[in-house]
Amino acid sequence: MSDDQTTQIREAIQSAIAENPVLLFMKGTPDQPMCGFSARTVAILQSVGTPFAAVNILPDPRIRQELSGLSNWPTIPQLFIDGEFVGGCDIVTEMYESGELQQALGVEDDANGQAAPEAQAQEPAPLTIENRL
Amino acid sequence: MAATDAPATPEELKTRIETGIPGATAAVTGDGHHFNAVVSAPAFQGLSRIAQHRLVYDVFGAEVGDRIHALSIQTKASETESSA
Question: What's the pTM value of the predicted model, to 2 decimals?
């Protein structure tokens, strides 16, 4: 019955990953993260200063299900850079602290060696995956 | 489905990681829902961080996000005796 919709969700996820150079799948939105790990990852991306798109996985459980099937990764958030899965909150934090994240994002590494920033509300526009279905 | 309805404990997670990944040493803290695991294993050598973390997640399968609500992971490749 819902096979068509599930396929649509999977395809929407795949095209979102292909179309957005920096894409974060998260719980909630950058303005209103609904989980500490998502909030922390948003804060790191904002601190690096790179624009990023975000998909809220909460509105439909199938988004998370299909995403985890594609990425072979069980937890949220999940960061993709240039179509490649980079990691979740722990890996993004480690990469930020070592400067690898800044390198992967092609930005100046002025935060090397700094502790990851705490979560903090700010701007970027969330990309709502529903709009693509 | 969760393997059991009993709340997960840091001790349980530690034992399962050390049993599931050969030669692994784990330090686990947590409150029954949110856990943090620091894991060293020779099996991590040569693997990307993603692959290292997947090995740890794989120990718990579908329990991650369910019975084990959140699992933070830090991994480290530990030395093996035979380094050519």
Answer: 0.85
